[in-house]
Amino acid sequence: MTDHVLALNAGSSSLKFALYELVEDNRPSMRWRGQIERLGDAPRLLAQSAGGRSINEPLTDTKTHDEAIRAFLKMARENLPDIHVRAIGHRVVHGGAVFSEPVRIDDSVLDTLNGFIPFAPLHQPYSLAGIRAASAAFPGTTQVACFDTAFHRTHPWVNDTFALPQRFYEKGVRRYGFHGLSYDYISQKLQDIAPGLYEGRVVIAHLGNGASMCAVSGGRAVASTMGFSALDGLPMGTRSGQLDPGVVLYMMQQDGMTAEEIADTLYRKSGLLGLSGISSDMRTLLAADTPDARKAIEYYVFRIRRELGALSAALEGIDALVFTGGIGENSAAIRQMVCDGMRWIGIEMDKSRNADGGTVLSTDLSRVRILAIPTNEEMIIARAAARLA
Ligand code: ADP
């Protein structure tokens, strides 16, 4: 029996997973990774092994989100008889102000995490559903929670608070920041490949369906574009990004929208989708070449540049800009547009390096180094699970 850890990332419509064998010094080495997509609808299991095998099949006889996750975990247990799962690590969206590190899950931790549902009502319940399903399928196995908020617990207080009456802060209304597992991975990767930059002032742009940016100094988070919820900051696939709170008051008072309608608009109908009227998917917009698609891209790029300026101010300078996430890793066009407007701050993209898609994208003379690094949130979860097993 070989020791393994399983990393789970349960979302509203998908469960991403990765299975790692623990090799020398408990280092996780990836064996399988994949996802169940269309949870609660027509779930399908897609997976690839490190050895090149692949699975693409429907998960029949499951109706609900929970049933599909349970069916997958049962299948994993039955089909991998030669492995011993030492720990299961979970991506948990919200760790509040309490958790700044991954933690072994017990009843009291679960109670605390339940208490954070009001902070992330659209996301936290899915994290908890993944934990419940994994505890039922693998009873007695160590479960570890890894938080999207944890990496940001080092923000100085000015980046942790809003200028509201103090009682809101006491209740937990703070600038938490998200995508922390991705920032943690990129930061650790920088320490390996460019220790000098790791020690410096780095802005990381995580540009996926969800998107945010984080200012990191010497490996510690200083500020993020996301605050209390996963709505703030950059426009995203379907989320609005930064919004004057007066707009929400207008929606309620003048448009007569309910809280649910406003949440639906801000989370599911805004961002790239809302502006373009076509799609939330950047590839589709880049290919569409319609005036509204171009406007959506222009707004997206403009907000990234604005935040880059703001985060550089929070760091009192910038030594490196790192792109990651589906758009940041793959779209040379978006990276080029962002950097074209940032020469004033010392950012100079090398066009052909950018088009070739290597790791270093800046010119040799650029004062700020530009990098593209694929993120790997599951690896951060697996390392934590291995450590705490
Ligand atoms: P998630 O946040 O769901 O993990 P991803 O990090 O996979 O999302 O990012 C998805 C986004 O990345 C989509 O908007 C997709 O169009 C975009 N994307 C992926 N590849 C490319 C590409 N080659 N060019 C432009 N955009 C891309």
Automatic annotation (TrEMBL):
<dbReference type="GO" id="GO:0005829">
    <property type="term" value="C:cytosol"/>
</dbReference>
<dbReference type="GO" id="GO:0005524">
    <property type="term" value="F:ATP binding"/>
</dbReference>
<keyword id="KW-0067">ATP-binding</keyword>
<feature type="binding site">
    <location>
        <begin position="281"/>
        <end position="283"/>
    </location>
    <ligand>
        <name>ATP</name>
    </ligand>
</feature>
<dbReference type="GO" id="GO:0000287">
    <property type="term" value="F:magnesium ion binding"/>
</dbReference>
<feature type="active site" description="Proton donor/acceptor">
    <location>
        <position position="148"/>
    </location>
</feature>
<dbReference type="GO" id="GO:0008776">
    <property type="term" value="F:acetate kinase activity"/>
</dbReference>
<feature type="binding site">
    <location>
        <position position="16"/>
    </location>
    <ligand>
        <name>ATP</name>
    </ligand>
</feature>
<feature type="binding site">
    <location>
        <position position="9"/>
    </location>
    <ligand>
        <name>Mg(2+)</name>
    </ligand>
</feature>
<feature type="site" description="Transition state stabilizer">
    <location>
        <position position="179"/>
    </location>
</feature>
<comment type="pathway">
    <text>Metabolic intermediate biosynthesis; acetyl-CoA biosynthesis; acetyl-CoA from acetate: step 1/2.</text>
</comment>
<feature type="binding site">
    <location>
        <begin position="206"/>
        <end position="210"/>
    </location>
    <ligand>
        <name>ATP</name>
    </ligand>
</feature>
<feature type="binding site">
    <location>
        <position position="377"/>
    </location>
    <ligand>
        <name>Mg(2+)</name>
    </ligand>
</feature>
<dbReference type="GO" id="GO:0006083">
    <property type="term" value="P:acetate metabolic process"/>
</dbReference>
<feature type="site" description="Transition state stabilizer">
    <location>
        <position position="239"/>
    </location>
</feature>
<feature type="binding site">
    <location>
        <begin position="326"/>
        <end position="330"/>
    </location>
    <ligand>
        <name>ATP</name>
    </ligand>
</feature>
<comment type="similarity">
    <text>Belongs to the acetokinase family.</text>
</comment>
<dbReference type="GO" id="GO:0006085">
    <property type="term" value="P:acetyl-CoA biosynthetic process"/>
</dbReference>
<keyword id="KW-0963">Cytoplasm</keyword>
<keyword id="KW-0547">Nucleotide-binding</keyword>
<dbReference type="InterPro" id="IPR000890">
    <property type="entry name" value="Aliphatic_acid_kin_short-chain"/>
</dbReference>
<dbReference type="Pfam" id="PF00871">
    <property type="entry name" value="Acetate_kinase"/>
</dbReference>
<comment type="subunit">
    <text>Homodimer.</text>
</comment>
<dbReference type="InterPro" id="IPR043129">
    <property type="entry name" value="ATPase_NBD"/>
</dbReference>
<comment type="function">
    <text>Catalyzes the formation of acetyl phosphate from acetate and ATP. Can also catalyze the reverse reaction.</text>
</comment>
<keyword id="KW-0418">Kinase</keyword>
<keyword id="KW-0808">Transferase</keyword>
<feature type="binding site">
    <location>
        <position position="91"/>
    </location>
    <ligand>
        <name>substrate</name>
    </ligand>
</feature>
<dbReference type="InterPro" id="IPR004372">
    <property type="entry name" value="Ac/propionate_kinase"/>
</dbReference>
<dbReference type="InterPro" id="IPR023865">
    <property type="entry name" value="Aliphatic_acid_kinase_CS"/>
</dbReference>
<keyword id="KW-0460">Magnesium</keyword>
<keyword id="KW-0479">Metal-binding</keyword>
<protein>
    <recommendedName>
        <fullName>Acetate kinase</fullName>
        <ecNumber>2.7.2.1</ecNumber>
    </recommendedName>
</protein>
